[in-house]
Write a structure and sequence with these properties.
The complex is a heterodimer of chains A (296) and B (315). Chain A has 296 residues and is mainly α. Chain A has 14 helices and no strands. Chain B has 2 domains: 55 residues, no CATH class; 235 residues, MetI-like (MetI-like fold, Orthogonal Bundle). The chains are: A mainly alpha (296), B mainly alpha (315).
């Protein structure tokens, strides 16, 4: 922030400035409340008993407190016929997101390394083709994926979703890593080559040690996106193979049943927690990924 | 075979022109390493894309049938009532969503840019919706907009018995609840993009204007905002893409209802393909989504490239 603009528009403007500053803080706080309100309500409701919620409303101060609803949401609540809570679906998401994130990030790093440091005639065109995948709308690939997954015997399975997310994620991870590695001075690579280092050795000894920032950005981006992804998960998984985003719809969208808002709130929070924690602890990297992913 | 001829080349000069196998392998190693990803992306973008195009031109019903039907499905799609509702909704949704998000995002960015305390805290609060899935966001906001559980019943609890806020269950109004939720979700992100832009404006320009006695609103209007003009376009392009792809937000909030009043193209395409077994019609709809994205992204890409080239020449 040291190189940020050094002007101070409000402090230089005297008493009017002080009043303006109060307005600025008031507005910022108001917006902050609007942003926090939904989250706060859900957190509060996850600890309230149903009687309290129906008496005092979903939006209201709690008159009861219990951790039971979190336990129910995690392990005993009925979702789509099975009564093991949200837990199995949470594990499905974990089993999907970890391999998909690791594989797509690793391949993306190597691709980015090739496309920035081992350019060959036509490599820029190939890079262009690889980035096209970023813009492909899901609807355009749904039917082909359905056929391909059927052909591979991966219909309604976590490995099937891992495959989809790896292929789809490659474009992003390659783009991220290539744009980062381009800024590594070519002289470093040249020096290593003169020392007799080959393709893999340069990658391991020169490029990888410089990579942590971009690897973190890429991992966070992939993890959050795959965890929160819905369209593919919704269409290509059912029953006990659903990731948590799909199970949450089955759980809270259930038509006629009486809503157990406390348990549903806890379940929704469990589903939101992993990416939220990553955001809170890796916010800087999260934002960097977001800007790159959206703008490039 | 060529390998053998290389090893047995008689003259020294020839062998030095053709390096041994290991070396030749290593010169192509980068290409070899890249090949699988390239093949996968090629299949994903071009083969899958062409496949869907083909289905959209076929007689497919609930099973793929690759006999050629011409543009029949496109014609059928465009006279379809639900498709008409879907794209009308998309126009309403995307214009309000883009404008609303940009107005709030820019407002927040300007407020935060006033050298305030606790900037990091405010930014963290405005941005957290981005980390949460549309399903979670949509579910929670459905509870809040629902007249029986949400804001309306809250006001009743507080004693304002005549208060009414039931847009979620009104055919004419439900789409606006989706717009509001969309704005809530994305404006923090837009704030971050604008803030980065505001901070990149040359501070000397601003100081000079202040010395000239220009007021802050005037400096924003005349100097800062014009300087970040390109960011407005980039943000609009990003948001339009989000809008066109909007699917699960509507699914979680209204499931396209009440009735079919909040159907969006992405939702209807899913419905055609996987609920009604009209694969060809669904594929035609998916093509229209791709065309809509291309209509935005192609001109934008050309414009960015032209601008970069102009800057490169100017600088």
């Amino acid at each position: 922030m040291a190189d940020a603009a050094t002007y101070d528009p409000l402090r230089t403007a005297g008493t009017w400035g002080r009043r303006a500053k109060i307005i600025v803080y008031a507005l910022l706080t108001l917006f902050a409340l609007v942003y926090l309100l939904p989250f706060t309500i859900v957190v509060l409701n996850s600890f309230r008993d149903l009687g309290d919620i129906s008496r005092n409303g979903l939006i209201g101060l709690p008159h009861s407190f219990s951790l039971d609803y979190w336990i129910q949401a995690w392990s005993t609540f009925c979702v789509g016929g099975t009564c093991e809570g949200i837990q199995p679906f949470f594990y499905n998401s974990v089993a999907m997101v970890i391999p998909a994130t690791i594989i797509s990030t690793a391949i993306g790093a190597i691709n980015g390394y090739v496309l920035s440091k081992w350019r060959f005639p036509g490599s820029e065109v190939l890079f262009g083709i690889m980035t096209l995948g970023v813009f492909m709308p899901g609807q355009m690939v749904l039917l082909p994926w359905a056929q391909v997954l059927g052909f591979l015997g991966l219909t309604n399975s976590i490995p099937g979703l891992v495959l989809i997310h790896c292929v789809q994620g490659l474009s992003f991870t390659t783009l991220f890593c290539r744009n980062y590695y381009v800024n590594i001075p070519d002289d470093l690579i040249k020096a290593a080559r003169i020392d007799g280092a080959g393709f893999w050795r340069i990658f391991r000894k020169v490029v990888l040690p410089l990579s942590p920032p971009i690897i973190i950005v890429t991992v966070i981006w992939q993890f959050t996106n795959i965890w929160n992804e819905f369209l593919f998960a919704f269409i290509f998984s059912s029953g006990t193979h659903q990731p948590i985003t799909v199970a949450l719809v089955a759980l809270s969208g259930g038509g006629t049943a009486v809503h157990q808002y406390n348990v549903e709130s806890a379940a929704v929070l469990i589903g939101a927690l992993p990416p939220l924690l990553i955001y809170l602890f890796g916010g800087r990297y999260f934002l960097r990924g977001l800007t790159q992913g959206a703008l490039k | 075979m060529s390998v053998d001829s290389a090893t047995f080349t008689p003259t020294k000069t020839a062998s030095s022109e053709r390096p041994p196998l290991r070396e030749r392998f290593s010169t192509f190693l980068p290409q070899l390493v890249l090949a699988p990803s390239l093949a996968a992306t090629f299949v994903y973008v071009f083969v899958f894309g062409a496949w869907t195009v083909w289905i959209s031109l076929s007689n497919s019903g609930d099973l793929p049938d690759y006999s050629f039907a011409g543009f029949h499905n496109y014609a059928e799609l465009w006279v379809n009532l639900r498709w008409r509702i879907a794209y009308t909704n998309l126009f309403v949704f995307s214009s309000l969503y883009v404008i609303g998000t940009m107005v709030i995002g820019l407002t927040l960015a300007i407020l935060i840019d006033q050298r305030i305390r606790a900037e990091a805290l405010f930014r963290t609060i405005y941005l957290y919706p981005l980390a949460i899935s549309f399903i979670v966001t949509g579910t929670v906001w459905r509870w809040l907009f629902s007249p029986t559980t949400g804001i309306e019943s809250w006001m009743h609890q507080l004693g304002w018995a005549s208060f009414k806020f039931d847009w979620l269950v009104q055919r004419e109004m439900a789409i606006y609840t989706v717009v509001l939720t969309g704005i809530w979700q994305a404006s923090g992100f837009v704030m971050a993009l604008f803030l980065a832009g505001l901070r990149s404006v040359d501070p000397d320009l601003i100081k000079a204007a202040q010395i000239d006695g220009a007021s802050m609103p005037r400096i924003y209007r005349r100097i800062i905002l014009p300087a970040i003009g390109p960011i407005f376009i980039a943000v609009a392009v990003v948001l339009l893409q989000f809008a066109i792809k909007t699917f699960e937000l509507v699914l979680a909030m209204t499931q396209g209802g009440p009735g079919i009043s909040t159907t969006l193209p992405a939702l209807y395409v899913y419905d055609l393909m996987f609920q009604r077994g009209q694969l060809a019609l669904g594929a035609a709809g998916a093509m229209m989504i791709l065309v809509a994205l291309a209509l935005i992204l192609v001109p934008y890409t050309i414009w960015t490239n032209l601008r970069q080239r102009r800057e490169a020449r100017g600088g």
